[in-house]
Request: fold
Amino acid sequence: MTTPESNIRGIVKDANDRWNAAFNSGDSASIAALYTEDGTVLPHTHAIVKGRTAIADFWAGMISAGVKGHGIELLDAHDAGDIAYSSGRWWASGLGADGKAIRYEGTIVTILRKQSDGSWKTCLHTWN
Reply:
């Protein structure tokens, strides 16, 4: 059974908002808690990151490198039972090699899995 489109969009938007808040607070453990235990992050230029501990370490590295001000604009969201998938645009700021502020941006795809308690957590996250 699928969730009405407006509901799944709200669920995914809420998940994105919680992710942005955790990232922008600088708390990588809070970010990792938004993923399933076996969650996977597929960065476009890095090795596959699997599991909450590795995910927390990965995001801690990004935060310590000065990436901040993360946002996500939801473009599309659908579900098929206990799985939801979404696409969007993301942005963040940081410092370039020359020490000057730069803006990063691209597209994002996430897959969320409904948990036994009714919450939704990210099981796959990739971007470019």
Summary: The mean pLDDT is 94. Strands lie at 35-42, 49-50, 68-80, 83-95, 101-114, 120-127. The longest helix spans residues 5-25. The radius of gyration is 14 Å.
